[in-house]
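Researcher: We plan to redesign the surface later, but first we want a full-length starting point. Tokens attached.
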């Protein structure tokens, strides 16, 4: 690749298309990525576009009713906006040198970001049973990008699961008949790997230590949430499993439950397994407990004295504390930091306080005066001077991480 490049990052969901365009410079073998344009398209009968430029004179555009019914029309509009004289940064789409795609599931085969080929596409199709809600949309995003930009523009798949490929078998195997793993790939894969990896690197740099010498617990807390144990810079365990449903209580996902509950509900209520699956993924978590999946609304209710909102936040915090405790043991004898990131992790000091309370006996002490402020920089420390463990709030940037990996793969 040349020194000056335009890298487009795409995250295609079932009903959304998120995008971010970066200007990449590689002077003296030091990669710098400057965001130029970002936005999101909500696809469907009621479609909406939010598009904004970055830099010295940022601009924002919203199209409340764009009439975009599929990914092709959505990406076609995105390319037009990127080339718009007033709101874009490109003279033509031919300036896009590479595209990085977020792909949720890479199964066991893909342990690094990979150039997209026909063989890779076939492997993604084969992985659909492992991620039926995510991989089809990711595949469609790649196909549409190829159709609109042609084969001359290299594309790279960056997998959510890749970072967790370093987990040992003792962490990723379930207590199920072994042939289910061998024949069907039933195991823990983990997700949010791009975010966990990104914030771990930022924290290591902040602490002035080589990443390969750092042990971290990274808490990616958002509508989807997961926790990872990182030892010597590598993932050794994580809370999400075969699918993103396992682990923490999330916005609409239940997280860990007794495996017998679906069978119990099927027998006692007559719910079908498809209905139970939908409930666990879309109607549980914060939404199921409180009627609201938005943590901001729950915090407003908590401040107003709503005891049920307080209970919901306590359930969320309890599950996070439970995983932190488990990973403390796995990372013995040294923990170099606990990292909070994601929409909730970065912005909810109320939940950080609940998660970090009464942990003095394991050397973890939060400074509430430092913690109870908004994140105004890429990283801030919130531990007390009495704490033996750094407590960091780190702003994640999954799109930037995808752009970095795309650059490295295409450059070869």
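Model: Full-length starting sequence:
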């Amino acid at each position: 690749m040349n020194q000056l490049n335009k890298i487009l990052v795409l995250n295609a969901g079932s009903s959304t298309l998120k995008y971010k365009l970066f200007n990449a410079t590689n002077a003296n073998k030091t990669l710098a990525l400057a965001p130029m344009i970002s936005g999101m398209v909500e696809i469907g009968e009621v479609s909406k576009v939010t598009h904004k430029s970055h830099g010295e004179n940022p601009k924002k555009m919203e199209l409340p009713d764009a009439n975009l019914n599929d990914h092709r029309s959505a990406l076609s509009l995105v390319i037009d906006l990127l080339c718009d004289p007033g709101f874009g940064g490109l003279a033509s789409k031919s300036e896009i040198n590479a595209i990085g795609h977020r792909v949720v599931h890479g199964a066991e085969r893909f342990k690094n970001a990979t150039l997209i080929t026909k063989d890779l596409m076939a492997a993604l199709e084969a992985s659909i049973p492992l991620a039926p809600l995510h991989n089809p949309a990711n595949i469609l995003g790649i196909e549409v990008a190829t159709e609109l930009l042609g084969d001359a523009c290299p594309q790279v798949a960056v997998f959510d699961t890749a970072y967790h490929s370093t987990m040992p078998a003792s962490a990723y195997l379930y207590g199920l008949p072994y042939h289910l793993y061998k024949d069907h790939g039933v195991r823990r894969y983990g997700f949010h790997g791009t975010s966990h990896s990104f914030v771990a690197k930022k924290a290591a740099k902040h602490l002035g230590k080589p990443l390969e010498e750092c042990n971290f617990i990274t808490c990616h807390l958002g509508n989807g949430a997961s926790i990872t144990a990182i030892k010597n810079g590598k993932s050794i365990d994580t809370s999400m499993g075969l699918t993103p449903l396992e682990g923490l209580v999330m916005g609409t996902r239940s997280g860990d439950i007794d495996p017998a509950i679906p069978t119990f509900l099927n027998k006692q209520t007559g719910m079908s397994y498809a209905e139970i699956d939908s409930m666990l993924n879309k109607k549980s978590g914060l939404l199921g407990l409180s009627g609201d999946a938005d943590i901001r609304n729950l915090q407003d209710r908590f401040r107003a004295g709503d005891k049920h909102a307080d209970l919901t936040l306590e359930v969320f915090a309890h599950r996070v504390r439970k995983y932190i405790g488990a990973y403390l043991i796995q990372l013995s004898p040294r923990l170099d930091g606990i990292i909070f990131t994601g929409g909730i992790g970065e912005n909810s000091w109320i939940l950080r306080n609940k998660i970090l309370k009464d942990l003095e006996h394991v050397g973890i002490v939060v400074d509430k005066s430092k913690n109870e402020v908004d994140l105004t920089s890429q990283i801030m420390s919130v531990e007390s001077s009495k704490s033996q463990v750094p407590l960091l709030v780190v702003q994640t940037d999954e799109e930037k991480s995808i752009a970095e990996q795309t650059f490295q793969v295409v450059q070869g």
